[in-house]
Amino acid sequence: TAFGFRKVGEGEKQGLVNDVFSRVAERYDLMNDLMSGGLHRLWKDAMVAWLAPSRRPGFKALDVAGGTGDIAFRIVEASGYQAQVTVLDINGSMLAVGRERAIRRGLEGNLTFVEANAEDLPFPDSSFDAYTIAFGIRNVPHIDTALSEAFRVLRPGGRFLCLEFSDVDMPILDRIYEAWSFQVIPRIGKMVAGDDEPYRYLVESIRKFPNQENFAAMIRRAGFARVTWRDYSGGIAAAHSGWKI
Ligand code: SAM
């Protein structure tokens, strides 16, 4: 099968990821709710609360792998509708859904949508006050390159925040999570999107992603200071924070 458990080389990884999100874009938000039991909303709220975006006019954030806009909308709301947020994604279908949602919420004046790669950001150095990425970095073939790009486009004093699935370090919960990932998620994928293979690939990518401590080390290697993280739901997800100083 195209998405099975065989080892996916870095070259083809981006192609597979693009294929998955092009196929599910229209149903992506529903899938997220079903697959996380609604928890992704709380994790995203928590991450944006931690960011605590400034309410001064002109606060500029870049939300990479921004997809259908969940993080960007939250930043705009938390800033008292002051922030200007650029939603960047490699997938035009995901961005198209995001743009429609933004218009429905009347947020389009605060948002700009850009189709581009996290590994090669089309912005000058020191362009943003904050860089966010939620459930996106795991899909990027060269994570180090994406982190260096994050560092480059942030202004000195700028903040990096990344939300991602992480390592569950609780007895029992880890078992439940394992069963949920391998039994339930592909079934929901099959029911809603008509295909379970892409979801097997995504679950596998979660397993391969570095744990909290190792990911923090990668963020430090990209140049960030004061790198810390917060676990959500026992480590099913974690937010990592770093500063460009
Ligand atoms: N941030 C959104 C959220 O939390 O709901 C969307 C997350 S979705 C799981 C992952 C997103 O990463 C997809 O929209 C996908 O197109 C995007 N993506 C994958 N590889 C990328 C890359 N190299 N550069 C930018 N975006 C990428």
TrEMBL record:
Q: Which GO terms describe its molecular function?
A: 2-methoxy-6-polyprenyl-1,4-benzoquinol methyltransferase activity; demethylmenaquinone methyltransferase activity
Establish whether keyword Methyltransferase is in the entry.
yes
Q: What is its EC number?
A: 2.1.1.163, 2.1.1.201
Q: Which pathway does this chain act in?
A: Cofactor biosynthesis; ubiquinone biosynthesis; Quinol/quinone metabolism; menaquinone biosynthesis; menaquinol from 1,4-dihydroxy-2-naphthoate: step 2/2
Task: Give the protein family.
Answer: Belongs to the class I-like SAM-binding methyltransferase superfamily. MenG/UbiE family.
NCBIfam families (alphabetical): MenG_MenH_UbiE, PRK00216.1-3
**Protein name per UniProt:** Ubiquinone/menaquinone biosynthesis C-methyltransferase UbiE
Species in which this protein is naturally found: Chelativorans petroleitrophicus
